[in-house]
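Quick one: structure tokens for this chain, please?
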Amino acid sequence: MRNSGASVARERVVVIGAGIGGLAAALRLAQAGCAVTVLERAAQPGGKMRSVPVGGRAVEAGPTVFTMRWVFEELFAECGANLGERVALSPADLLARHAWSRDERLDLFADIEASAAAIAAFAGPREAEGYRRFCARSAEVYRTLEGPFIRDGRTSPAGLAQRVGLSGIGDLWRIQPFATLWSALGSFFRDPRLLQLFGRYATYCGASPFSAPATLMLVAHVEQAGVWTVAGGLSALARSVADLAAERGATFRYGAHVERIVTEGGTVSGVVLAGGERIAADTVVCNADCAALGAGLLGADAASAGARLAPAERSLSAVTVCAVAEPRGFPLAHHSVFFSRDYRAEFDTILRRRRLPDDPTVYVCAQDRSEAGLVPSGPERLLLLVNAPADGRDRPPTPPEIETCARTLLRRLEACGLQLDLASPVTTTPREFEALFPGTGGALYGRSAQGWAATFKRAGARTAIPGLYLAGGSVHPGPGVPMAAQSGRLAAAAILDDRDSTARSRGAATRGGTSMR
């Protein structure tokens, strides 16, 4: 039973996992006066927003792109703080540098006309005009979905249509919800390289552009609205959120492995740690992947709140290489992408054949390069990433396959003019991602965004188990740092709304009872 005798303002909340969704929920609930305890297996907060030591330096090993700043500005403001005073952010004019060969390079900028000029020089004026139309459409997609979908709690297709209203049905239809991203891009671009570049936005959600919905073109508008570099990396942003939550009264316990969620009478009553310690709670926020819940990794009592995903339903995993090295031959930007020669074959290999690609697209984050364009003297901190199937539990890549992947990765970079000597890198494979985030198979984005309905299959903040709520990149509104943080805000809002509704119901029942004779 829920602790009806305790002070409502001091409701006991346990947050499982200090990923950004759990941190956002913990911060908001601590600010609201709840007694919040955050339990995290790792030694530090952040979840996927993490760094690893390489050659005595900390290299960011997780997300590297910070967008949708408003999510964090609102979160901090709700808790009496200012994001800009606690986190050093630098706006990026150059979004990313893209390469297909030694002679084919294209920079994209936050300024639409600067990008259009670069595209005109790269692929001709017709493609530049297509880019302008694409930007207008991506902005329309974002405007249509921000209020009723991103800011709102879980919704269904019918619920989304209801929320936009009759006046918005036309907008909803124009964003092409039933088309794939790849097919929609064909109405804006003919150059296969531009199809590849903008199709890559599907991978931001761990999906293939050939099956992901066209609505993912909203990523273009999100980036144009602002990309920022975070001093210390996104792991530093996670620490800032955790620090503020602690200031507001949340308690953090690291190295705390939750073995199971406990219910009594069908209602959450607490959690049990691996060592047997039981922690009572009125409310539990689970910031683990929904697949972990569905697989029973947090106990049988809570399994019904999760999702069981077949390998084909999982989003992409990755092979990442963190290194300290001196790049040669290519002018790296902070974000650079080196494209494969055949994008469709690359995704067929990953998602149908369930193998690492023979010719991968490679993302490189040069973490010591800034907008000033100054080239660091000496070795630089680098994160290299290629997409991989999320089979870290069922059929993880073998050591020889990982060695081959490292060679093909370097070969792709060399084809574009970049030479790297990687001494003692730290490599993370789908097997290690499964170990870091159990139950996922190494999938980094939850359920794959395949088809128009996939988004609506994600769980919302509330579950069928009273007192159990969900947050994180595997639930609504989706993956990525700002979306996962938004999920934590939505979970906290649901908890506070339900708490207030319960209090009102008790008050009404009491008043009704005393008035009867």
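The radius of gyration is 23 Å.
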